[in-house]
UniProtKB/TrEMBL annotation:
Superkingdom to which the source organism belongs: Bacteria
Leader peptide range in chain numbering: 1-25
TM annotation in the entry: none
Species this protein is from: Pontibacter silvestris
The entry's keywords: Signal
Pfam families: Metallophos
Protein known as: Metallophosphoesterase
Amino acid sequence: MFSRILKYRLWCLVCILLVSLSGFAQRNKSFESPSLESHASFSFIVLPDLQNYVKFRRNQAILDVMMNWVLMQKDSLNIEMVMCTGDLVEHDDIINPDGIKMNQTGRQQWEAVSRAFGKLDGVLPYVTATGNHDYNIFSYTHKPKTTHFPSYFPAEKNRESQKLLREVTTNVYGESSLENAAYEWRSASGKMFLFLSLEFAPRDTVLSWAKGVVTKDKYKNHTVVLLTHAYLNYKNEHVKALSYDLEDANAGLAIWEKLVRGSHNIQLVISGHIGAKDNARKHVAYRTDLNAAGKKVHQMTFNAQAMGGGHYGSGGDGWLRILEFLPDGKTVKVKTFSPFFALSPTTQHLAWRRESYDEFTFQLD
């Protein structure tokens, strides 16, 4: 009798395992790994604000997952550039974190994010903007805004980026810094790109410098990608004002009016900054406007910092964006993907965001 009961229980256990394995197999089979529509395409990766990954030690491993995934997909997705929208850290110079809002000092946060990008050093070029959290403006006692960014992201950090570096201007210390810099890259088909990264709330002198760069004869036929931090709100509107007591600071609308609209070759603007707890729609924005030359300017905001439990949650659930540039030289396909969710068969069904604001196509002029 005991033997029959034991055999029955073992048979039930085997059935359960087979059903479970079948479920895993189905999930694995149905999971769609990121791929290019054309083998002749190339892609850019957009990383959102990273501050909530580095301010807690527990979340830093998720950022490592994201960076390791980028490295693993370098060839399959023909990744040519990695961009970050800024807010690399939560607090530039804090030395006594309370353990609740964050448990890493400013130095530890800078070291963590520099270490994460270090995975790409010598392998892939990357460009990062600086965000409001990367400056000491939260103390409201220091003016002008200052940051430790140049110490952790000097030009020499990544030789792949340094090879592309063409223009820089001075920061508030009067020193040349990648806070405001331009990088030139040529695609295999010969299409020329200029990546222009601007500091948070760029000063008038910075916007004048940027305008001077994009209007140079040697860049006049380049497709310019502008990377800055605070530019659009979730209603797809240009940000009109900033809630910080800063002098000589320009938000999205001013950047549009003083730089983008008057430039004939800025075709894509990428920014971050915005977000609301576990609300994907309030982390993104998109709009197109015509510049002074009558050409379309595609303006895209992508962030994820409050996904996964808000500002004290996972840091953003590993979300990033893949921009595939098709071989026609005009079509760009945007997809939103989480390498973190893609790790396990039990969460792979969450690894893609398919809403129209997260997956779309646009055409460059």
